[in-house]
Specification:
The chain is an alpha+beta fold. The chain is about 30% helix and about 30% strand. It has an 8-stranded mixed sheet with strand order 6-7-5-15-16-17-14-18, with helices on both faces. It has a 6-stranded mixed sheet with strand order 9-2-1-13-20-19. Strands 3-8-4 form a 3-stranded antiparallel sheet. Helix 1 packs across helix 8 and helix 3 packs across helix 8. It starts with a strand and ends with a helix. The structure holds flavin-adenine dinucleotide.
Length: about 350
């Protein structure tokens, strides 16, 4: 089939990789350049936190998350960066005055899915063995099987792969006005295809009901004095932060969650909250350098669950909210199995 994809962010790329494997020919449209930073998928930390997300999400997120962790290895191999996948588990800790909240958090996960019984309580000795740099915390939990995709490397490598693929034409910096059955509308022009996919994230607001943006801010640090090797969260009654280690002493600190589709730069308040929580977690961050701060908005539906709409000749996939990396491979697998397109 000749297939059109409107929106080449995270979902558009994972979809394109799947469709190429099935032998289709693709025409891609995006309002950004292939290496631009508009997609939320470019800002994301790339955590695959199917357990920790359960605190506020439904167990269906857990099932799709588990499936995605299996599928990511193949996708990253396809674009030539298998090492961009890590599944060493994650750590969650808190200050002593918040241990009650920490216990409650873990109990909630255990209540929601049976597999959470594998979450391990760590005392100082066990934590020191696993993550020596967190030895000053007396209590934490280890969540096995959680991991991360290096999101920015995936975005870069998938651009390289798609741009050089003989079965792909990528129209960059073009705004799609409408996606309809078998057609993509750009201004006065209608491009026809055997099948079209609408994966424009927040850009599909006019056509996906109740779609909203949820602002997220992250801070990138260069911290040679810190050696944390796994995604690590700290519970705090007012804000939750996570630290995601990347190559060469880089760490992503995130992320705020604000009900707004404001994409303006990071606020003073958010920076203060994220950085003070970070410093209280590990004083080695004091001399870290702030490399950049980023803001983007997560596309979310009313129920914060993924949205799939299937019609003859058209599929829309949206609403991946704070779970794009966690869910995209499995949600796309589901959409392709259920759609008329096979
Ligand atoms: C700060 C932050 C941290 C996050 N961390 C994580 C995490 O750790 N783990 C996780 O699983 N998820 C995370 N996410 C969520 C994840 O990034 C999103 O769920 C995911 O990116 C949504 O994918 P998408 O393809 O629907 O949208 P996007 O990635 O935003 O892509 C949409 C694409 O459509 C294009 N587009 C829009 N409108 C038009 C138009 N009219 N015409 C043409 N092109 C258009 C855009 O340019 C863009 O390329 C995070 C998000 C944020 C903001």
């Amino acid at each position: 089939m000749h297939i059109g994809i409107a929106g080449v962010g995270l979902v558009g790329r994972v979809l394109a990789l799947n469709l190429l494997k099935q032998g289709h020919t693709l025409t891609l449209f995006d309002e950004d350049t292939a290496y631009g930073d508009k997609p939320a998928g470019m800002t994301a930390a790339g955590m695959l936190a199917m357990f920790a997300e359960l605190e506020t999400a439904e167990s269906v997120i857990f099932e799709y998350g588990k499936r995605s962790t299996v599928l990511w290895t193949g996708l990253l191999e396809q674009v030539g960066i298998p090492e961009a996948y890590q599944q060493k588990g994650s750590i969650i800790t808190a200050h002593p005055q918040d241990y009650k909240e920490l216990d409650h958090f873990i109990e909630t996960l255990k209540y929601k899915v049976e597999e959470a019984s594998g979450i391990q309580l760590l005392d100082r000795r066990a934590l020191t063995k696993l993550e020596p740099d967190l030895a000053h915390h007396a209590k934490a939990f280890f969540i096995p099987h959680e991991g991360q995709v290096d999101a920015q490397r995936f975005m870069q490598a998938s651009s390289d792969y798609l741009l050089s693929h003989p079965k792909v034409v990528w129209h960059q910096e073009v705004t799609v006005d409408e996606v309809k059955q078998e057609g993509i509308v750009l201004g006065e022009t209608l491009d026809s295809f055997d099948w079209v996919f609408d994966t424009r994230g927040l850009g599909a607001r006019g056509q996906v009901k109740h779609l909203r943006g949820v602002r997220g801010e992250v801070i990138w640090l260069d911290a040679p004095e810190v050696k944390i090797t796994r995604p690590t969260r700290m519970l705090h009654p007012r804000y939750k932060i996570y630290i995601v280690p990347r190559l060469n002493n880089r760490y992503i600190i995130g992320a705020t969650e604000i009900e707004s589709d404001d994409q303006s730069p990071v606020s003073v308040r958010s920076s203060l909250e994220l950085l003070s929580a970070l410093y209280s977690m590990h004083s080695g961050f004091a001399e870290a350098r702030i490399v950049k701060t980023l803001t983007n908005c997560r596309p979310a539906c009313k129920d914060n669950l993924p949205y799939i709409e299937q019609k003859r000749g058209m599929t829309r996939i949206n609403g991946l909210y704070r779970h794009g990396y966690l869910l995209a491979p499995a949600i796309i697998e589901k959409a392709l199995k259920e759609g008329v397109l096979r």
